[in-house]
Specification:
By secondary structure, the chain is mostly helical. The chain has five helices and three strands. Helix content is 47%, strand content 9%. Strand 2 (86-88) and strand 3 form a beta hairpin. The longest helix has 13 residues, at 43-55.
Length: 101
């Protein structure tokens, strides 16, 4: 589910209450399960996945995902391109739909 959320983050959906479901969902998986599911995904999906893992408090998963990424990341969006609320330098992700933590 977490990889699917990173691959096709449909706005606005359940992102407003992500602080309820995202940490719980990430807490139910192992880094190995996430990496297996993430295998072969686009760089933009992996960047969003790493960002989501970090946001959900799973730094172990985020670090594993970061190791899969190239040195130079393209800019990607979590949510519509015109919604650019927060910027993550580590992931090169603009985040709009996640609640502020």
């Amino acid at each position: 589910m977490v990889v699917a959320a990173a691959e096709r983050p449909a706005p606005p959906g359940d992102w407003a209450n992500a602080d309820d479901w995202l940490p719980e969902t990430f807490g139910a998986v192992t880094p190995e399960e996430v990496l297996t599911e993430a295998e072969g995904r686009k760089v933009s999906t992996l960047a969003r996945l790493g960002y989501l893992a970090e946001w959900a408090g799973r730094d172990d998963v985020a670090d594993e995902i970061e190791a899969l990424l190239p040195g130079h990341l393209p800019v990607t969006n979590l949510g519509p391109r015109e919604w650019r609320n927060r910027w993550s330098r580590r992931w090169h992700v603009y985040d709009a739909p996640l609640p502020r933590g």
